[in-house]
TrEMBL record:
CDD domains: APH_ChoK_like. Keywords: Kinase, Transferase. This is non-specific serine/threonine protein kinase. It is an enzyme of class 2 (transferase). It comes from Zymoseptoria brevis. Residues 36-230 form the Aminoglycoside phosphotransferase domain. Its EC number is 2.7.11.1. Pfam families: APH. It catalyses: L-threonyl-[protein] + ATP = O-phospho-L-threonyl-[protein] + ADP + H(+); L-seryl-[protein] + ATP = O-phospho-L-seryl-[protein] + ADP + H(+). GO terms for molecular function: protein serine/threonine kinase activity. It comes from the Eukaryota. InterPro entries: AGP_Transferase, Aminoglycoside_PTrfase, Kinase-like_dom_sf, Tyr_kinase_AS.
Length: 258
């Protein structure tokens, strides 16, 4: 039955990029999903007022998880339409986004130091690896060793330098994190945020992770990120350290696997 719905949807409504197919005017099925995204959508819907796609059902399709969720017609991703808005509209959008980040950061983890997916299992993050899940970790120190591709602290100083290791030795509070809050994952219409999408990287991470991950693709829209930096807590040391790692060992799980 699901295969028939997907076939009909592709003929009537067409695909949604490369991630799925519309099966109704305001409904889509996103395929090749993983459990962390399902967990995060349910948790954010139950614990925040952030506009997110309503989740209707989880399917199994060709051995993978597929999520049937709300589709938002007539919207643009912020990356595409940012430049057409007035400064007042841009400021209003940034205010909305910073407010949603504040909501996420107010949520309390079940384990104060544990880095994990929403429900406590392995994480999924494109910054760490393109395919594999990782963790969970008992604390930030263990997480940071994974970020370094498994290089232990006694050897990491020489390879990564002081700026990285100063950050990796610090203790951090754990905060609920969207994990990919960049301009291509913010849907807008008429100068207002309609939805925050793509929650597959969400989970419990060190408090700076939302800030640094939001900059992971900041080359596309520097003005937005500069305005956002003025509204949320900044982690400039951590961003500097991450940029070194993006250059030397981005997606470390892929490096290890290779």
């Amino acid at each position: 039955m699901l295969a028939v719905r997907l076939w009909l949807g592709s003929k009537i409504f067409g695909p949604v990029g490369i991630v799925g197919v519309r099966v109704a005017p305001k409904r889509m099925i996103k395929w090749n999903c993983e459990e962390p995204e399902l967990e995060a959508l349910r948790y954010a819907a139950a614990n925040t007022s952030i506009p997110i796609p309503r989740l209707y059902r989880a399917h199994s399709y060709r051995g993978h998880l597929a999520l049937e969720m709300e589709f938002f017609p007539g919207c643009d991703i912020l990356q595409v339409c940012w430049r057409k808005y007035s400064q007042e509209q841009k400021a209003a959008i940034v205010d909305e986004v910073s407010g949603y980040i504040a909501q996420l950061r107010q949520l309390e983890p079940s384990h104060l130091e544990r880095i994990s997916s929403t429900d406590g299992g392995p994480c999924r993050d494109i910054r760490i690896g393109s395919v594999r899940r990782f963790g969970p970790f008992d604390d930030s120190l263990a997480f940071h060793q994974c970020v370094r591709g498994g290089v232990p602290e006694e050897h990491a100083q020489k390879f990564f330098g002081d700026e990285v290791m100063r950050v990796h030795r610090r203790e951090y509070n754990i905060r609920f994190t969207h994990g990919d809050l960049s301009a291509q994952n913010i849907l807008v219409r008429g100068g207002k945020v309609v939805a925050i999408i793509d929650w597959e990287c969400a989970g419990w991470y060190p408090e700076y992770w939302e800030y640094t991950k939001a900059h992971y693709n900041s080359v596309y829209l520097p003005e937005f990120y500069e305005m956002l930096r003025q509204k949320i807590e900044r982690y400039d040391d951590e961003l500097k350290a991450e940029r070194i790692l993006w250059d030397r060992m981005d997606q470390p799980l892929d490096e290890v696997r290779a």
